[in-house]
Design goal:
The protein is an alpha+beta fold and 320 residues long. Helices cover 53% and strands 8% of the residues.
């Protein structure tokens, strides 16, 4: 847990300032919506210092976007954390995302997992990307596809772009399982927001189009704070874009493409980890290079090659 940089200030201010009425949270929201951000901050700060979770969340928003106060990501994180500790779900959602954006990706993942389970499409996008690449969390393409499908169906454009990239790498069978899992996740959410009944992979095209037959309704949670009314939280940078996960391993070069394809069938059963990868057959003059991927990093490619070499199979990493 990071040191709370505003703790001393909060204690001193709590002694010096009276405790305003709870209605002042709404007065701050009204000022925010008028564009009078300093007035909004002045309404919220005394309440936040006294422990009002909505006011703490709103101050986090003000510091996050530099409205009425200088932009300060650390202050934003601190205020989100205080509100999240009191069970403020919006604050917990933003806390996980801002921790991720501030570089504490390992610490952010449990919060992002909770947010994804609650249906936050931004968290589903980040977690889905992590699961696809095998960064921070163990690689799981089925769960990655399910989460990215839900985020895309919610209308998150970046998730739709990543889903199209996943279609190029994830085998059809795993995509079908991912869609089934997405439906199951929606059913278990209690109040399903998305209609995934018509979503099916196109085996001929090898891609999946995600559509919704009905528009996804707005979140039904109470909205006493300005984030869902006037300020759209920005999506943090992904762990790495799906399209960037292009490291591969080369397993041999063959004079005929048919021999390369036959070799893949034998090699993938002998080498641990190859079964989850996709083969590619790169022509280079008179030979066909047998490669497999995608892999998220050079280190991951080297681990696959170590497993291959352990059973006598030639292997070396191929950079993007």
């Amino acid at each position: 847990m990071r040191k709370n940089l505003v703790a001393t200030f909060c204690v001193l201010a709590a002694i010096a300032l009276p405790f305003p009425a709870l209605a002042d949270v709404k007065a701050g929201v009204d000022a925010w919506e008028r564009g009078d951000y300093p007035a909004a901050v002045n309404e919220w700060r005394p309440l936040a210092i006294k422990g009002d979770a909505d006011a703490q969340f709103n101050l986090g928003q003000a510091y996050r976007f530099g409205r009425g106060v200088p932009a300060d990501m650390k202050q934003a994180e601190d205020w989100y954390r205080q509100a999240a500790a009191q069970g403020h779900f919006q604050a917990e959602d933003n806390l996980g995302l801002i921790m991720f954006q501030n570089g504490d990706r390992q610490g952010a993942m449990p919060l992002i997992q909770h947010s994804a389970d609650r249906g936050d499409p931004r968290a589903q996008y980040v977690l889905g990307t992590a699961l696809f690449n095998g960064d921070i969390v163990e690689r799981d393409w089925i769960s990655a596809y399910a989460l990215m499908t839900r985020a895309s169906a919610s209308g998150l454009a970046r998730a739709s772009e990543s889903l199209a990239q996943m279609d190029k790498y994830i085998p059809l069978e795993q995509r079908q399982k991912g869609l089934a899992l997405a439906r199951d996740m929606e059913a278990k959410a209690g109040k399903p927001r998305l209609d995934l009944a018509a979503v099916e992979p196109d085996p001929a095209a090898g891609q999946t189009s995600v559509t919704s037959t009905t528009a996804a309704p707005k979140a039904t949670a109470p909205e006493p704070t300005p984030v869902r009314k006037t300020v759209a939280p920005e999506l943090p940078a992904p762990i790495k874009s799906v399209s960037a996960a292009a490291w591969r391993v080369q397993l041999g070069a063959f004079g005929e493409s048919a021999k390369a394809k036959s070799a893949w069938g034998a090699i993938k059963t002998r080498v641990s980890g190859l079964g989850a990868l996709q083969p590619s057959y790169a022509k280079a003059g008179a030979v066909t290079r047998l490669q497999a991927g995608p892999l998220g990093s050079k280190a991951e490619a080297e681990r696959v090659c170590s497993a291959a070499k352990a059973v006598g199979q030639a292997c070396f990493p191929v950079a993007p």
